[in-house]
Amino acid sequence: MQLQIRNIGTIEDAEIHLDGLTVVAGYNDTGKSTVGKLLFSIIKSLSRYEEDLEEDKESNTKRLLNRIYFSLRRKVSFREDINLRAMFRPAYFFDDIKTKGMDAVRERIEFLNDHDILTKIESNHINEKLDELINIISQSDEKQEVIKRAFKKIFYSEFENEVINRYKSEDEKSSIKIKELDNEILSIESTNLDDIELHLYDELYFIDATMIETPMVLNYSEAIEKSKSFFEIRNKKEILSSLGIANIAFHIKDLDLKLRESVYGENDNDLSKEISRIINGNMMYIPKEKEFKYIKKDGKSHKAINTATGIKSFGIIQMLVNGGFIDERSLLIIDEPEVHLHPEWQLKYAEIITALVKSGINVVITSHNPYMLEALYLYSKLNDIEKISNFYLAKDNKIMIQEDLSNIFETLAIPMRHLRELKMRESHVE
Q1: Which residue, 252, 385, 406, 420, has most beta carbons within 10 Å?
Q2: How far apart are CA 340 and CA 317, in angstroms?
Q3: d(C-alpha 380, C-alpha 20), whole Å
Q4: CA-to-CA distance for 414 and 419, rounded, in angstroms?
Q5: Which structural domain range is residue 123 located in?
């Protein structure tokens, strides 16, 4: 599968193959993380759009049914008209809509008109709300439009309206395309987030994505659970009710939920055992205590917050594997894993990742560390996945494939050369 990016974030141009192991290297602010967030957003919007549509409709319908009921109650004595109360009671009304659809609404409009219950002004007010209800029920289920709505929501959650390339001209379009050979699967074009042209020509291979940005999610799981992502906020009422509650990116909420549910999976696979050997124990979620713990092989346990970040990095992979959340049709995205790993454990981490790829898992990694890059390169050879491993360099607003790593190492070695120059200057001073 090939991802084509034009004028997104800091990226002017990129063509990235997703077939096994994909590594994007480069300095900070070169677009590496944007690639991961893009992929996560696309896959999640395509996998969740039907669920999101139903949740939207149900939430908006129930909200409006309550408004209609309480508006009527302030204008009419339900004690005198029991039938009216029964007919507009939100729970009954909602069940009636599920059975009859728009006919349930039309019946109530006719009832109000026939019985002359309300004044003309009051009737107009209620009828406006009932017309709004019809619009919600009849909201388009057309696949492309539904996906577009889901896509815009999750993009806002991940990028907060800063995804469009800030360096492009006003009339220049941003675009994202996904292809398999000459087959175009998805096309997205936009001048801004409110004006999106989206075309889905065929089903995407991936049905789920998981993004790991930092192992510190284990430290703040309780706060993450209580927070909201913009993807989850569906209307103005929810915006108001969420004031004072932290808003976070959807990929963090998604990862936290998966890790919590991993406890119900299996932990007897070879990869999980190998991780257990490396970290001398296991990371797991303890439902009764509502927290993550590192349990050593000697039986001693520590809260995640008191556990080394390197152990947490391996532990997250272990829990995702145990929970069955990464498989052949899911994409695992890992942003700069080396940040919390000693060089020796960077090698071990690279070994685990390439073993995942060999088992059929597709992995995207961003990195700016030579140890990690070389380890991934060597282990891809040792695990016989070299043919499905692609290395890219993010530089000068472009992401280009590299046939060998020499150009990547040369770029990443620039700070080291500066350090040597400083040492030479210091020696001359002495």
Answers
A1: 252
A2: 14
A3: 10
A4: 9
A5: 55-137
